[in-house]
Design brief:
The chain has strands at about 5-10, 15-25, 30-35, 40-50, 50-60. It has about 60 residues and is an all-beta fold. Bound molecules: zinc ion (ZN).
Length: about 60
């Protein structure tokens, strides 16, 4: 099974949407990424089932 899936997220700073690859082998995870458009770093919390991203939230703290 493919555990790395791409999910569409929205940057909390500039509002642009882009695709992020998430490793769904971890059920609940928090990691940092940065916007592809404005390059601001931010945190992402992903709830996953193997092969599927169930929920995704972004934090701009
Ligand atoms: Zn951005």
């Amino acid at each position: 099974m493919e555990v790395e899936v791409s999910a569409r997220i929205q940057c909390p700073f500039c509002g642009q949407r882009f695709d992020l690859v998430v490793d769904t082998s971890a059920r609940s995870q928090r990691f940092s990424t940065e916007c592809e458009i404005c390059c601001h770093p931010f945190d992402v919390v992903a709830d996953c089932e193997p092969g599927e991203v169930v929920a995704l939230e972004v934090y701009s703290e």
